[in-house]
Structure formats: structure tokens, C-alpha cells
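Quick illustration, no need to memorize.
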Amino acid sequence: MTRSTRERIIDEALRLFAERGYAATSVAEIEAASGLSPGAGGLYRHFKSKYEVLAAAINEHAARTRVQVAESLDQLSGMESSAALEERLSHLCRAGLAKVREESELTRVFFRDLSQFPELVTVVREGLLQPMFDAITTWFRAQPEYSDAELDWTGIAAVLGGSVVHYRLFQETVGESPGHAEKDQFVEAWVRLAVGLLPSPAPVR
């Protein structure tokens, strides 16, 4: 599918911001990477400033995340009657890992540059991170196996979701997996911990 000029500008700007940093990336470099004549002002036919390109990228990623989360929940809901709990949990964990990986460029920009733009930090928190935690909470509450578990699902989502985010961030920043655990090992451990939340059977009298 052919990208529009606006889409190319957003995609290439985010890539350059991730590689070089926001301040170190010029408008002319974004134009060149987007297939426009560098320094000719082509970017300004679509955006008022370099900041507006950054804000558009973050807002569009947030909007896409909300759609993806809803679609993932629908897909997981369709698995309930045909898949074992461990398979459903594995699918949930792997979907989270894939989503965090997809946002690797934005993650680098977030940690390097967004402290100077608190309004964009809010967009990332509320538009990308919180929907993932909310989705975990929603999913667990909907599973019949956990219906009798009186647990703090918000806190559990913070722990389980946070571990997924941390796994990918560790790889991005350190260059290897935490504890040298491969992805399959991580997923298996994540599933085992989640299964451990199941209510204990009532004692036989």
C-alpha cells in the first residue's frame, strides 16, 4: 500500500528521532528521508513545525493502539471456547510483546526526548500504556476460570503487563533479554504465574 506524503513524513521523522534524537534531527533531513527536496519547505505543506510532526506521530500511534487492543480482545474472546487456558494466556502475552516491539522507535523517542514535552508523555501514558493494562484487566475478568478469584486485577495487570513492557525495554536498552531468558521461556513463565492466580479448589469434607 502506497503511503501518502504525510504518512511518509511521520514515519521517517519518527525513525530519525529514534536514531538521532529529536533535537539532532533537522527538518531538511526529514524532508530528504521522506522523498522531498531537502530545505525546500515541503514538510511545511503538511505540518507547521517539527514538533507538530512528533505530536502527530504519537497521537496516531495512540489511536492505532486503541484499535489494536479492541481487535486483540475480540480475537481472544473468540478463543475462549476452543482453547485451553494456557494457550489463551500465551496468546495474550505474545500479543503484548509484539505490541511493545512494534512501538520500539516511539519507545526510544519517549525515553530520550519526551521529558521536555509533558503533554506528549500524557498521550503515551493514556493512549498507549494504559490501554494495554486495561486490556489485561478486562481479559482476566472475562475468563470463566477466574470468575471466583477475588483479586485486585488492576494491581495484577500492573505486574503482568509491566513485566511484558520491561522485557522488551530491557532488550532495547541493554541489547539482550533480562536474565538471558529467551522469549519462549519468558512466555512460559508468565503463563505459569498467571495460572497460579486460579482459586484453590475447596477442601474435600
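Residues 21 and 113 are 7 Å apart (CA to CA).
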